[in-house]
Design a protein that fits this description.
disordered N terminus, mainly alpha, about 5% strand, Arc Repressor Mutant, subunit A, two-stranded antiparallel sheet, DNA-binding, 2 strands, binds manganese (II) ion, about 160 residues, homodimer
Chain lengths: ~160, ~160
Amino acid sequence: MARSPSASDADHSATAKLPAEGTQARRFGKTRSAQSTALLEDYVELIADLLAGEGEARPTDIARRLGVSHATAIKSISRLKRAGLATARPYRGVFLTDKGRALADRVRVRHRLVVDVLQALGVPSEAAEADAEGIEHHVSETTLKAFAQFLKARG
Amino acid sequence: MARSPSASDADHSATAKLPAEGTQARRFGKTRSAQSTALLEDYVELIADLLAGEGEARPTDIARRLGVSHATAIKSISRLKRAGLATARPYRGVFLTDKGRALADRVRVRHRLVVDVLQALGVPSEAAEADAEGIEHHVSETTLKAFAQFLKARG
DNA sequence: TGCAAAGTGTAGCTTAGGTTACACTTTGAC
DNA sequence: GTCAAAGTGTAACCTAAGCTACACTTTGCA
Ligand SMILES: [Mn+2]
Ligand SMILES: [Mn+2]
Ligand SMILES: [Mn+2]
Ligand SMILES: [Mn+2]
């Protein structure tokens, strides 16, 4: 088609609000990759909590808490194993590897921080908890630092 | 297996940090459904921006800005059509329906607000823009109101 | 001691979202 | 006017994540 120059060249756009193509693509790409790790993060966080709270993490408990079928949970646990985050033997519950425990720790801290910031901004606690469950996976290290700073400065 | 009572009954857990099963399941379910609309939201927002800035929204431009192949963009545009958010005729670009425009407006306002709050918290602008691209899809109406309130109160 | 209920695992299906490869339109430039 | 390059559409394939249905283990309790 040999790309018409009429509406696309340079920056003479009406509102001048579109970011550079590559910049925008990089941002969306980051978001997509965050989504692909979100599920792993939620699983390891939950498994760590169950292990700490109940002494064991069983597929059915995990499934019930996530609101999915046990079959779905079991398949995701396989993905955790493939990713080197968890171990599990048939009928014997799920455990975290060192790597899984390390991830769970980071994820738990981040979750807490996101909830605290939301509440500091005046978000009611149930909304803060619910929204944090999704937001946490998209908060970069840079943003995390700013959050910590903000909470500290604010007492 | 008849569920052993030993470690699961009541609330006598060690750390007492786990939310009620149903509450937690509801939160995770909300997050999952937000993820399923995130892609639609990003597409309509981008299409609206392209229409405003360039006068047209073509599959290849959309694909380049999202950082995906044009084939992927075209398939997602089909999903937008199925959802009643967009129209498109072969080789003729993409347009938004009234519903699509309305969604784009809401999404743009929300995107802006999230970026502004992040920056107000001290997040550098590129990180704010990048993180907002993911965060925005998980911000509830309740949280949105709190954000607006916070920005107003703070000048 | 056994057996039913609960839990676990697997198979088969679906949708979403991504890819590459290839064929078909469109259109600006010559 | 032609025609090549750019854009568009479609097919075939992949993985992730969800589901239901069904078969197999485990284990508390009668
Ligand atoms: Mn989460
Ligand atoms: Mn979490
Ligand atoms: Mn977005
Ligand atoms: Mn956005």
